[in-house]
Structure formats: structure tokens, C-alpha cells
Design goal:
The protein has 12 helices and 11 strands. With about 280 residues, it is an alpha+beta fold. It folds into 2 domains: about 5-135, 2-Layer Sandwich (Beta-Lactamase), CATH 3.30.450.20; about 135-275, Alpha-Beta Plaits, CATH 3.30.70.270. Helix 9 packs antiparallel against helix 10 (about 180-195). The protein is elongated.
């Protein structure tokens, strides 16, 4: 696995910026050179909206000079700084670790944050480890059903969304005949398949063998082509069954997930019939 792929799957928000300087060598903006999935979700944006774009082009004139001075200090002094800072863009106070990596590049981890609207962090600290246990599946490092249930508004407030429901084939049989370690290996093999085919999107483990992918940043034709390619691979490997739909908008998340789940069941029955004839 490449280092950037490792960081992309890291649960804490991580991003790399390149400063943009104006007259008198004053930092006036910065460009996002790398972001991981967790950072995009943290800001409520897609990776396509952020990557290789500047702060000002994404957030407008919500300019935060203190942050520019902070990043500028890291880059010019070639140093590491850990601070607790408030950002008005998302109305949160964050614990950020920022460090110089090479000329004009600054890498950053957000370790903790405080859910607050005024910069007052007292009694509002949310520990990253606690969040991870509450919202992530320990085996796959995917989001779990708790995160999905508590953040449905992120889906409802979005446009042009693709939902993909996937179910591993023969997991119960593998557990029974080869043992749970073999079953775990099958699960991890499938999660790698999901990451490789739906890179840059949000992944959820709904249950033991059931998974959901939320795809954004594609139009309907692109989404259909992607899912058809994935379905062809699954038909060939018999690794899992798939159901999917594209929505211009979603008002009832549960009903839409139920809909793609039913489509997945249809595909699973088709696969069983086809395999029974072999």
C-alpha cells in the first residue's frame, strides 16, 4: 500500500496545503494539495470540491488571517506546531498538529475537535478515540450504522447521489466450513475491493456481510458505468452481490437504502440461479 493510500484511509482528518503569497511575502491563501476522506467529511465537502483548489475559491472571503499566519509560521520556520485553534468556517475549535514536510508544503492532522459555535472549548471536547469507537467498524475501518443514522442530514442536503448496496456471498458458509479467521479474511478482501473500485467515497458496514457506498461527484451516466463495471467483476468472481440507484436528491434515506437493498437481493438470486446451472 502506498503512503498516500494509507493516509486516505486514516480515521483522523489529514490534509496538506501549499501557501500562496502576495506582496511583501504575505500569505494570502493556500491550495489543498492532498486531503483524506476524513478531512473532506469533516468540512462537509467532497474531495473533488477541495483537492487542488484554494481556500478562498472553496469558502469565499471567509478569510481567517490567524490561520494563514499559523501555516506561514510552520512553513517558514520548517517546524512542528500543535495548537488548539478556532475556525469560523465550520464553527469548531480544533486541536491541530501541523508540520513542515518540504519547501512550501505543510501537512496537518486534526486530532480532536470541540463542537462549539463561539470558540469556547470548555466541557465540549470530543476525543478522537471515542469518536472512532462510536462511528467506525473496528475490523474494516468503515463507518458503522451509528454514523449513518446520526448523519443522514448530510445525505439529504446533497444533490446527485449514488447509493450502492453490497452483500458478501457465502460468508456464513466460509465461517462454518473454514472458520471465522477465513471469514475475516474474506471480509477484508472484499473491503479492499470496495476501496479499489469506489475510491474517494464514503463506505459503511451495515452488518456482518452488508455494506453501503455513498457515491458523490459523478453524474448519472458515470455512476451507471462505474456500477456496471463493478457488477461485471462480481459476476465473474462471485465475491458479492450488488444493488444500486442514482438520485438527484434524497428525502428519505432509509427508503432509498431499502430500495437498493432489494435490488441487491435480486442480483443475489440471479447469481445463485446462474451458479446452480454450472
Amino acid at each position: 500500500m502506498r503512503f498516500d493510500e494509507l493516509l486516505d484511509n486514516y480515521p483522523a482528518p489529514f490534509f496538506v496545503i501549499k501557501p500562496i503569497y502576495g506582496e511583501n511575502e504575505e500569505m494570502i491563501d493556500f491550495r489543498y494539495e492532498f486531503i483524506n476522506d476524513a478531512f473532506a467529511r469533516f468540512l462537509g465537502k467532497t474531495k473533488n470540491e477541495l483537492l487542488h483548489n484554494t481556500f478562498v475559491s472553496v469558502f469565499g472571503n471567509n478569510f481567517e488571517k490567524d490561520w494563514m499566519l499559523f501555516f506561514d509560521r510552520v512553513v517558514k520556520n520548517k517546524t512542528f506546531i500543535s495548537e488548539t485553534r478556532f475556525t469560523g468556517v465550520i464553527s469548531r475549535t480544533v486541536v491541530i498538529e501541523s508540520f513542515y514536510i518540504k519547501p512550501n508544503l505543510c501537512a496537518n492532522f486534526i486530532r480532536d475537535y470541540f463542537a462549539t459555535n463561539n470558540g469556547d472549548s470548555s466541557n465540549n471536547r470530543v476525543n478522537t478515540d471515542v469518536l472512532r469507537k462510536a462511528y467506525y467498524d473496528y475490523m474494516t475501518n468503515f463507518y458503522n450504522i451509528n454514523y449513518l443514522n446520526e448523519h443522514e442530514n448530510l445525505i439529504v442536503n446533497s444533490k446527485n447521489i449514488g447509493l450502492v448496496y453490497l452483500d458478501i456471498n457465502n460468508l456464513k458458509k466460509t465461517n462454518n466450513e473454514e472458520g471465522h479467521r477465513a471469514g475475516d479474511r474474506l471480509i477484508l478482501k472484499f473491503t479492499n475491493f470496495i476501496r479499489n473500485n469506489f475510491s474517494g467515497n464514503d463506505f459503511f458496514r451495515l452488518g456482518g456481510d452488508e455494506f453501503l457506498v455513498i457515491v458523490m461527484g459523478l453524474n448519472e451516466k458515470q455512476f451507471e458505468e462505474l456500477c456496471l463495471d463493478v457488477k461485471a467483476e462480481l459476476d465473474s468472481s462471485n465475491l458479492a452481490s450488488i444493488g444500486y440507484s442514482f438520485y438527484e436528491s434524497i428525502s428519505d434515506v432509509s427508503e432509498c437504502i431499502k430500495d437498493v437493498g432489494l435490488k441487491m437481493e435480486i442480483h443475489k438470486k440471479e447469481m445463485k440461479k446462474r451458479n446452480a446451472k454450472k
